[in-house]
Design a protein that fits this description.
two-stranded antiparallel ribbon, SH2 domain, globular, STAT, disordered C terminus, 7 strands, Recoverin, domain 1, DNA binding, 234 residues, cytoplasm, transcription
Length: 234
Amino acid sequence: QVLSLPIVVIVHGNQDNNAKATVLWDNAFSEIDRVPFVVAERVPWEKMCDTLNLKFMAEVQTSKGLLKDHYFFLAQKIFNDHSASFEDFQNRHVSWAQFNKEILPGRGFTFWQWFDGVLDLTKRCLKSYWSDRLIVGFISKQYVCKLLSTEPDGTFLLRFSDSEIGGVTIAYVIRGKDGSSQVENIQPFSAKDLSIRSLGDRIRDLGQLRNLYPNIPKDQAFGSHYNSERGGMG
């Protein structure tokens, strides 16, 4: 016998996502001297944050990890709780079911399926944008509205889609003649979309986008990404 990293045998590609979740959980949270195959059913949220961060950096191959605000958004998502503070979440435990069994409210997928979709999209199409900190990514639609509603016309930011797996969307503010503001969200771009035309070129195409939040002219923020990508690869 020999000790090895955990492995999962699958018979169909549609089991791949679940297998990756099983290996990740086992790798991160099992004890070295455990009874074979036994792993904790619930783990501290703080440990989960470290695991998601390491997985994200390794998968995307970036030195820019997740930030405190990102963890807060992810906690709200996995616990389905928008009233708790960042500190409240630090004292909680997250279960395997919350991570990879329970469907997110109003969605057709689990937390892990959503997060893995973000990983895949970022790795394939958004690595350089993420590494340049041009994508906020992990932020709710509601909080984006709050941030942008007081900003000048054409201010925008990029976030990962809540409603689709593996999508990135652009939220921007429009001001009416009466000065009232409205935040619009562009239909999310998938990896397939970004392989046809890169994110940088799409942003350049959209005349209603002017400044990347908080106040960086879009050509200054994204100029180095215009026309510089082939096949949408970051």
